[in-house]
Amino acid sequence: MDSALGFAIALAISLTGVGAGSMTTPLLILLLGVSPVTAVGTALTFGAIVKIASVPGYAWRGQVNGRILRLLLTGGIPGVLAGSFLLDKLKTSRHESSLYAALGALIVVTAGFHLFRMFRPKQTGMAIDRSGLLPWFALPIGAEVGFSSAGAGALGSLLLLGFTKLGPSEVVGTDLCFGLGLSAIGSLIQVGGGNYDSGLLLRLTIGGLLGALTGSLVSGRIAQRPLRVGLLVMLIGLGSQLALHSVSKQQQPQMRAALPKQPVVQP
Fold first, then answer.
1. Prediction pTM value
2. What does the pLDDT look like over 157-186, one tens digit per residue?
3. Cα–Cα distance measured from residue 204 to residue 217, given in angstroms and rounded to the nearest whole number
4. How far apart are CA 215 and CA 195, in angstroms?
5. What whole-number distance in Å separates Cα of residue 96 and Cα of residue 51?
6. Around 64, how many Cα atoms within 13 Å sit in the side-chain half-sphere?
7. What is the CA radius of gyration of the chain?
8. Is residue 214, in this structure, part of any structural domain at all?
9. pLDDT tens-place string over residues 28-56
10. Which of 30, 35, 148, 190 could join 195 in a cystine, given CB atoms 3.0 to 4.6 angstroms apart?
11. Whole domain around residue 104: which residue ranges?
């Protein structure tokens, strides 16, 4: 089951470009019953492993802009540290319902933002270099990745398209390296804090590597746009379900408190 899930996630990433964190975290929580903090830590590490396979090709072809990547990481690294620290502080059971709600909301917003980008009219005109502002906008992106494992792919690419003069291939390559850097740092923090499941991660990785290989072989034969739209709609549903899951978590202590206490029988 776990390897099949890793295969499906990596295949979807290869075919649609939707980020690993946006898919992995809600699926681990809703399908496998993993706790929110463990799901984020495992998703970050899984995402970093899957992205490592793609980065060398872009770097070899010269499609990674080193200066822009440094600017992104200047803001993104402090952000992912802050987001990871906040997640670790909220991992106690009394904050669990809030974590479900926050993670669900972030996934819905990220997936909805993907859909908005797909259907908005394409803007024409000269690109303006405002790369000096990248660290300030990369900071909240890093915080979102550290807290929820989602967001680097969608928001990072938009940032590069709006604030730099990079071509499409450089945008993809640079953003992929940015996402890998944030995932790697976030995963190291979560692994160091014990917020991951090593057995689950291994099984996900085995399926994920096969899924990434399969996706690279069939990516040119499948229409990406309809598949991406369907996947994003599914993610909005998963995120909404995750947010609603927080309501049931809040009601459980109240229901237990309302149950009549059993009398203690003295021997």
1. 0.77
2. 778 877 888 887 788 788 888 988 998 998
3. 20
4. 29
5. 29
6. 21
7. 20
8. yes
9. 888 888 888 898 899 888 888 877 876 77
10. 190
11. 2-120+127-246
CA-nearest of 40, 246, 6, 9 to 143 is 40
Instruction: List, in order, residues 6 or more apart from 53 with CB less than 8 Å away.
Output: 209, 212
Rounded to the nearest 10 degrees, the angle between the axes of helix 224-258 and helix 2-16 is: 140
DSSP E strand boundaries for the chain: none
Given a cut of 50, is residue 112 above it in pLDDT?
yes
- Rounded to 5°, the CA angle 63-66-70 comes to 135
* Range scoring the smallest mean pLDDT among 32-41, 100-109, 120-129, 219-228: 120-129
Q: What is the 3-state secondary structure (H, E, C) of 189-235?
A: HHHHCCCCCHHHHHHHHHHHHHHHHHHHHHHHHCCHHHHHHHHHHHH
Q: How far apart are CA 157 and CA 134, in angstroms?
A: 12
Return the DSSP state at 13.
Answer: H
Q: Band of the pLDDT at 255, cuts 50, 70, 90?
A: very low
In this structure, which amino acid lies at residue 43? A
Pair of tokens at residue 5: 């899930």
- 211 located within any domain: yes
In a domain, 263, yes or no: no
What are the structure tokens assigned to 83, written together? 């987001």
Which pLDDT band, with edges at 50, 70 and 90, does 258 fall under? very low
Who's near 11: CB < 8 A, 6+ residues apart?
211, 212, 214, 215
Question: Which residues are CB-contacts of 33 (< 8 A; sequence separation ≥ 6)?
Answer: none
Residue 174 maps to a domain: yes
